[in-house]
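Tokenise the fold.
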Amino acid sequence: MGRVYNIFIAIFCSIGSFLFGGVIASVITFGQFEDFVDDPAKYSSLSGAVVSTFTGGCFFGCMLAGWYVDLSFARRGLTCLSALIDLWGCAMQAGANNFACMLIGRIIAGFAIGILSMSVPLYNTEIAPPRIRGFIVGLAQQMIGIGFIVANWVGYGCQYINGYGSWRLALGLQLVPAFMLLVGIQFLPYSPRWLLEQNRDDEARAVVYKLHGVESTEKKESADAEFTDMQLTIRAETTTRSRRLNDLWETPAMLKRTLVAVGVQVFGQFSGINVINYFGPSMYQSLGLSSGQSLLIQGIYGAVGPITNFIFITCILDNVGRKKPLMFGAAGFVATYSVLTAIVASFPPGSSDNHPAQRAGIAMIFLTSILFSLSFGPISWVLTSEVFPTKTRSIGTAVAVCANWAFNVLFSQVSNMAIDNVGWRYYLLFILLNFVDFCLIALFFPETKGKSLEQMAEVFGDDVDPHEILGHHPDAQDALDDTSGKHKEA
């Protein structure tokens, strides 16, 4: 029962990802939306602005969440706030009467999603048992993928609606998951680690029992052991907690944690997956397909990643670990972008009608999605939220995810123009970036599978005895004694 409850929580928390990313890929290809923008000469840059303003909002939302996620309203309260902001931003997009209003709505909705992108993986990491943490946190990527499936087919269907109602309906449907999240989050538990930080130990123990599905003596012993380890470590770390950014590089071990977390987020953007997600139809048109064919292919493409991701997080991730799949993904991207570059360079769109080459190019784009779902897709969120200790987990996760959004803004702003202006040469960039990624992961990334959050100190070489820390803090020593007494009673 405990595992089912964990899975339900992880899935529901991630429901806010539905439609938010993928639907815009279809909308910017609608002739009705281009008429709304009413500036054909600048449409490539303006459509890029529609995407990049959203991701820019995500950057600032994530940054704010990093500072405030540990306050009294907690991860759950922050998620509730983001759902409210979401509703506001999505309503502005669907009802926009001019392009400026559309951009403001995109920024506001992006701000909300930025909060979710930081708070949801953090929350899922803190409620997940170590043995299935990869699966639980990976479910966030699964929901993002399912959201892209829904969004792509919504876009494909809405293109047949006459007038502005086509893109207004597509964007308006984003209100549905935002409302579901706002209502449903009220019934989910607080993170037990956050409750311990607030000195609400009895509530934290009750949540741990519920997450473990305590129904037998054996499960109770396992839950008590995890709770005590959690309580002891958090008591030790909160005595030295600081919200300063320079805590993220104050020691070599902490610097390594920060570089790994930031690196895996940025490398995920270097995979080019969001270029495909946002501008997939444009890429297909660059291969010689019509607008309608491009939307149909994008709809089929959207199903590939989630299916692969589900198989990976269910059967592979918690068995093979984090490092090997990341290396496999980076090497695979070098190969797929090399083939894609060769195809587009050899058979330029508009001057060649080589259909086998078109199909091969589409196959490479699909294979890139599969590789992403077997590597950076789920692992970037798992690794980012599990490497930091309690005292810097919130701010560290926020900095890493902010780096993700910063590069997302960059690629979303320039990709459409680059595809139009430099064509196949743009893909050379991704070959180089992923080759560098492979080398850095192989040389510097540690393996973290199967470790509890409290055991990460051993992985990164900064193992500290909580008794030693607490010995310098009389008040915290009382907390340690209290913890030990409760553990003996259990």
Observations:
- The chain has 24 helices and no strands.
